[in-house]
């Protein structure tokens, strides 16, 4: 396994992923989990939360809903949505909860238990 270590505040800046469940694993940018869903944003696709354009592919910064494959958003935007929604967190487009929440947890999106 990877032997890299980092401070938690530095981890986000370095595109590291921390999973906030079970064993609270952390991954460096080279070994972070990636979305396996087959989807590519069309030209002109924007974040459903901030309405700014998203990257032209899935990345650490740009994510897609694994359920509908049509909702694109920035990591920081969906993290903010998650902290506000708590256990009511869902895809902002298709409103899927189960598949969406599991994927977001794996990708390091923190979900508050309230």
From TrEMBL:
It comes from the Eukaryota. Keywords: Ligase, Metal-binding, Zinc, Zinc-finger. Gene3D superfamilies: Zinc/RING finger domain, C3HC4 (zinc finger) (3.30.40.10). Residues 47-95 form the RING-type domain. GO terms for molecular function: ligase activity; zinc ion binding. Residues 1-32 form the PHD-type domain. This is G2E3 ligase. The gene is G2e3_2.
């Amino acid at each position: 396994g990877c032997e890299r270590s980092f401070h938690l505040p530095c981890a986000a800046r370095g595109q590291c992923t921390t999973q906030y469940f079970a064993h609270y694993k952390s991954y460096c940018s080279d070994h972070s989990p990636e979305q396996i869903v087959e989807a590519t944003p069309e030209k002109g696709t924007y974040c459903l939360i901030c309405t700014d354009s998203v990257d032209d592919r899935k990345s650490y910064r740009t994510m897609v809903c694994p359920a509908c494959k049509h909702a694109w958003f920035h990591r920081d935007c969906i993290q903010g949505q998650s902290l506000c929604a708590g256990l009511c967190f869902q895809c902002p487009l298709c409103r899927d909860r189960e598949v969406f929440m599991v994927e977001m947890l794996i990708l390091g999106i923190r979900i508050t238990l309230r």
